[in-house]
């Protein structure tokens, strides 16, 4: 795989096997397969005026029980990440890995020296003072949910600036680190709501921190950076009060089914305990690339995790999707393993 390649390129996959996009079963993308109810008719959306974001700020602030002055919006989670790297202008970064690949990319672009800590082996590792610490919780690509209280205390002693990426926390019962933003002045929280609200095409990412930090970030932001479509869609999604409970319940149920499929397959050596909407598996006597090729016959995409740090070519990530999609995956694995 390419260094920073991600899953979910469904168009290229369909083209490579000469089928329609609608025929593909995409188990490589970790976007929620359950969608919120959107009542707005976008055909009648007024777009002749410049967008205003007051209502969006208020909706997101209410969703996370914070003040509007404690968040800043960006054109997607990756944009928030790159902006923060640029804004902080630090020298060193510590990434608890494996992690979302855009963090290493940002280090290289903004000339940060960086150190990778293999969190799968050990968390209790010394870090440089004044480092920019990156921690994804629940993590990618394994979905591990961590209690970060002791680590936060240590990072604070090391005078670290900390970014906790909670893009997948909404799928879990985990507690957000938002409660620490007033105790630790160098703490930032990333929320990529489009994962949970099934809208990766809606580019809205949120950074949360104390008022002073957000005030500094806002000084350098353009007046208009999100489209009116982005803003209205997410506002409408947040109005669906039943969605959170329903989406969590269905994802948990289907994840149990997916775990059973993987545990019973002779192709799989073991799986990781995940609190997110995906499962990381280590294959037995099989490479991710080979299994990907085999699954093309069934129009099924999975994520090769060989370009994640500390993982090799035997690791794959399978996203939680519908019962029908997972059943098709099971049937394909059964045939392949014979």
Automatic annotation (TrEMBL):
Its cofactor is pyridoxal 5'-phosphate. It comes from the Bacteria. InterPro entries: Aminotransferase_I/II_large, PyrdxlP-dep_Trfase, PyrdxlP-dep_Trfase_major, PyrdxlP-dep_Trfase_small. GO terms for molecular function: pyridoxal phosphate binding; transaminase activity. The keyword Transmembrane does not apply. The keyword Transferase applies. Residues 50-331 form the Aminotransferase class I/classII large domain. It holds the Pfam family Aminotran_1_2. SUPFAM superfamilies: PLP-dependent transferases (SSF53383). Keywords: Aminotransferase, Pyridoxal phosphate, Transferase. This is Aminotransferase class I/II. It comes from Malaciobacter mytili LMG 24559. The lineage of its organism: Bacteria, Pseudomonadati, Campylobacterota, Epsilonproteobacteria, Campylobacterales.
């Amino acid at each position: 795989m390419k260094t920073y390649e991600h899953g979910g390129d469904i168009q290229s996959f369909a083209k490579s096997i000469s089928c329609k996009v609608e025929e593909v079963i995409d188990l490589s993308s970790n976007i929620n397969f359950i969608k919120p109810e959107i009542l707005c008719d976008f055909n009648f959306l007024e777009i002749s005026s410049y967008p205003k974001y007051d209502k969006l700020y208020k909706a997101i602030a209410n969703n996370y029980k914070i003040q509007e002055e404690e968040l800043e919006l960006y054109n997607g989670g990756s944009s928030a990440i790159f902006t923060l790297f640029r804004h902080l202008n630090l020298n060193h970064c510590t990434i608890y890995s494996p992690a979302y690949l855009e963090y290493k990319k940002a280090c290289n672009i903004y000339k940060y020296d960086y150190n990778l800590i293999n969190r799968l082996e050990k968390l209790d590792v010394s870090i440089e003072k004044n480092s920019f610490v990156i921690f994804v919780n629940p993590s990618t690509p394994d979905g591990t949910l961590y209690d970060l209280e002791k680590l936060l205390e240590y990072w604070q002693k090391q005078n670290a600036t900390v970014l906790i990426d909670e893009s997948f926390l909404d799928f879990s019962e985990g507690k957000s680190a938002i409660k620490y933003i007033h105790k630790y002045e160098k703490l930032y929280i990333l929320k990529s709501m489009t994962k949970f609200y099934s809208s990766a095409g809606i580019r809205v990412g949120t950074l949360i921190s104390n008022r002073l930090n957000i005030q500094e970030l806002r000084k350098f932001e353009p007046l208009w950076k999100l489209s009116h479509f982005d803003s209205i869609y997410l506002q409408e999604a947040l109005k669906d009060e039943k969605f959170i409970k329903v989406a969590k319940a269905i994802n948990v149920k289907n994840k149990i089914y997916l775990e059973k499929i993987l545990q019973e397959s002779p192709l799989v050596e073991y799986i990781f305990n995940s609190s997110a909407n995906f499962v990381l598996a280590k294959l037995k006597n099989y490479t991710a690339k080979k299994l990907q090729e085999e699954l093309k016959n069934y129009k099924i995409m999975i994520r090769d995790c060989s370009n994640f740090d500390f993982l090799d070519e035997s690791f794959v990530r399978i996203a939680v999707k519908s019962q029908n999609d997972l059943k098709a995956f099971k049937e394909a694995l059964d045939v392949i393993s014979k």
